[in-house]
Amino acid sequence: MQYLAICEDDLLFHLMRNVASKQAEVLFLVQDAAVAKRIKRQGGKVRQGDLLKEDTYKRIKLHHVDQAIVFVREADFQDRVCRLLRTLDKSLSIVALTPDKNGAKEPEDSLFSQLQLPDIFEEFCATRLLDTLNRKKVERIRSLFSEKKIHILVQHDPDPDAIGSALALRELLGRNRITTPIVTFGEVTRPENLAMIRFLDIQIDRITYEDLHKDGAQLALVDVQPPYFDKPLGRVDLVVDHHPKRTPFKARFTDLRTGYGATSTIFTEYLRAIGMEPSQRLATALLYGIKTDTLFLERGSILADLSAFTFLYPFANKAMITRIERPALPREDLEALGRALSRLQLDDGVAVIHMGEINREDVIPQMAEFCLHIEGVEWGVVSGLVKDRVVISVRNVGYVRSAGDIMKKLYDDIGSAGGHRAMAKAVIPLDRFKERYGEVSEKVIRQAIVPMIVERDEQTAHG
Ligand SMILES: [Mn+2]
After folding, report:
1. Which DSSP state fits 418?
2. Centroid of ligand 1 to alpha carbon of 402 (angstroms)
3. Per residue in 39-65, pLDDT tens?
4. Is the CATH number 3.20.20.140 carried by domain 331-462?
5. Distance from the CA of 161 to the center of ligand 1, in angstroms?
6. Is 128-324 CATH 3.40.1390.10?
7. What's the CATH number of domain 2-115, 3.40.640.10, 3.40.50.720, 2.40.110.10, 2.60.40.420?
């Protein structure tokens, strides 16, 4: 690869030094003799000549050049250099470095591109500047805590972002689960989050307001702010969060970054800034935190989330994240399903399964989804009894319109029901369901739902 770097001074030479030694041969072309001398003295290959004269380019054999880089500050001058290059060589690829969008007059020239200096700076340098800031913050955070116990408090139903952040804070402080427990007034309930703390061996303790400062314990909040809680928390040492500040609060240290998609991103920046390589466990927790809070970088995520994600990725256990996201089914629930499947009968492409009493609600939609894989099935209707509620989940292969409407029509007045055309759900208190249907069984669900699906399908077919 042969580069031709056209410039006014030796700034570009310094910028391209590593490129020159590692990837390619770079020939510098400058107008000023003193600059040429300087580049040469520092080990660069350089030619000197009038940048607007054809002769200059003839001498350097332009046809050997793969890529020309033009860094001339004055817009008009740069433009003329680029035009001359294009006249001399139709197939030369040209990159112009510009302070702003100048000289972009030939958008149809596919071999010409512009890199803007502010963009380059933002991409490559801004994170470094942020590192300095983050290093200061980590120093401050470390100075907040004495030898006393620290409670890391998270929201009532801790989510992966909070859990990952809490773990990161503990690592930053060089503490362990005995001296720095993660605490909540509630508990983890979502199956994925339960799987996360099980696989990553994370302990979350329940605490009461009275015990928050027991024996002089200090208090840190991550992914949540003091006003979230119903009662005053007493002295708060640290708040690191990405939610908007709705009500003022007092804390000894606060780092709120409302533009961020996840608190885990803030903690990842802390780690990176102080050059601390995350353990696989921590990287997995943080990566999963960012992934879930940003819906895989789609919702409310910014460049910072993306670069934190990229930083963590090589350290994290991706296979474990896949396992966390698809928690294994409890054995009893699988057996209930096996029994139900063995009795399965199809009416007009509708598979109806009642699983009876089951432990985990998320098994029901998973099974409805699974039904669609059975030959001849166009609708999957799966119900189960979860504690004192009847849960019914409906899936169809997608060309019919009305899963949500049907569920609403049937069950909305005795429970909550709704959904989209291809997936829907109803949750009905057991006593209200029995009041209307007498019992909870496959039969009563089939008798209610199948006629509506069949009727709807016919309407669609004829209309
Ligand atoms: Mn969050």
Report:
1. E
2. 35
3. 999 889 999 999 999 999 999 888 888
4. no
5. 5
6. no
7. 3.40.50.720
